[in-house]
Amino acid sequence: MHFSDHSSSGKEMKNRKILIIEDDPELLGLMRHVMERDGYLVYCAANGPDGILRNTQENPDLIILDLHMPEMDGIETLRIIRESDDSVLVVILTGYASPDTIRAAADLNVSEYLSKPFENQELVSVIGSVFKL
Questions:
Q1: Of the residues 40, 72, 101, 132, which has the maximum number of CB atoms within 10 A of its CB?
Q2: What is the pLDDT of residue 5?
Q3: What is the pTM of this model?
Q4: Phi, psi dihedrals of residue 53, rounded to the nearest 5°
């Protein structure tokens, strides 16, 4: 019999899918670049409705979700995603989280928070800790 350890083997980790929902195209591009360089499969959405659709289509392992977006904010976006997907890991991205927002996000099973602005290494580190790499 052959047993293989997938706990943090490169191939298993590198096939993880990340969906970034962020309305700032520059930040979206930067995060995509950093995550792809780290070996993740990255999908992007520029707003809540697009993010909800992409989550359904791509079934990512993790969503990086901006709280402050026009049309539909991150909390509303996550509420809708949670109606059909209660297991996807979520990292909230925010420049200014109020206590009410943090409570609402906590009620929606958020794994981690990342405050803007952040360094590339912080992003990589937070994603790694959520995936427990």
A1: 40
A2: 37
A3: 0.87
A4: -65, -45
Tell me the two tokens of residue 97: 């989280």
Query: Rounded to whole angstroms, what are the CA distances from 5 to 11, 15, 61, 77, 104?
Result: 11, 15, 19, 36, 37
Tokens of 7: 């706990």
pLDDT digits (tens, 9 = 90+) for 34-50: 999 999 999 999 999 99
Return d(Cα 1, Cα 71) in angstroms, integer.
Answer: 54
Contact 109, 130 (CB under 8 A): no
To 10 degrees, the CA torsion angle through 24, 28, 31, 35?
160
Go through the domains of the chain in sequence order and give each one's CATH number.
14-131 (3.40.50.2300)
Show the beta-strand stretches assigned E in the chain: 17-21, 41-45, 62-66, 89-94, 112-115
